[in-house]
Amino acid sequence: MVQIRSNLANLVKEYNEKNAASLSIRQLSVDIEEQYEVVRRLYNDDMERYPRRLLEKLCSYFNCRIDSILIIESSEKPQENSK
Fold this sequence. Notes:
Elements: E1 2-6, H1 8-19, H2 25-31, H3 36-43, H4 52-62, H5 66-69, E2 70-74
Antiparallel strand pairs: 1-2
Helix pairs in contact: 2-3
C-alpha cells in the first residue's frame, strides 16, 4: 500500500539547523499567513487533504519542491521472482 506522508517536521528541523534558528510551527503559520491549526496538522502528519494554497506557500517559504514537503512511502514488500 502506498501512503502520502508529510515531511514538514523534518523540513522545519533542517531549516533550524541550517539557519541556526528556532522556527516554530506558530511562527511558520504567521510567516505564510495560514491558520496555526492547519500548519500544525500538516506538521504532525494528521491531514487527510492537502490544500494546494498551503503547499504553494510552503514551497515558496522553504524554496523547495512539493516532493520535499510530501513524500510517498510504500509499505508493500517487494515480490520475489519465482522460477
